[in-house]
Amino acid sequence: MFKFFNCHDEQEGESMGVVVTNEVYVGVKSWWSFLLRGLIGIAFAVILLTWPGSTIKVLAYLVGILALIEGVIATAIALYLGSKKEKIGILLIRGIIGILIGILLLAKTGLTLALVVVLIGIWVIIFGAAEFFAALELPPMAGRGWIAASGLITIILGIFLLLLPLETVYAAIVVFSIFLLLIGILRIVFALYAYRFQKEHRVA
Fold first, then answer.
1. φ, ψ for residue 88 (rounded to 5)?
2. Is the pTM of this model over 0.85?
């Protein structure tokens, strides 16, 4: 899905005990986007859990906004990578699907709880798969395990939402909010690892 950007100093990395090839994954350079998305996810989890009188419409609107934000960020990064002649297929698909599901949740009124949960489930499975495969291409010392864990947790949540009936809005909100909190924390931890990796190896 992603390739690596050039880095000029291979020997410096070797002197630090880590072999750094002439390529460094773009995820390390965009550590700030993971930090931002982690904070946004935690904020949405808190809003969902504390919103008074939560309804299906509230759930659909808030998740729709989140899907739209994630979709726009993924699409923007994909287009940037495309301008650098990088492979963007999975990332672009993830971004477009996020935007479409976000618009659907925001525009369609009167959706049943079951349909809202199914849409959320489809979105998070695609999201998690893209994140997991992206993690496989990260440098080991950049904290890729955190993003891989984030992707796996997201996939598990999506399957959970699709297979297990959630009969109340509150149950759906609690499950999704727990997911957002976990993913948010993992993204923030990864962002810190990636920032340190970038600083140590002077990724341009």
1. -130, 5
2. no
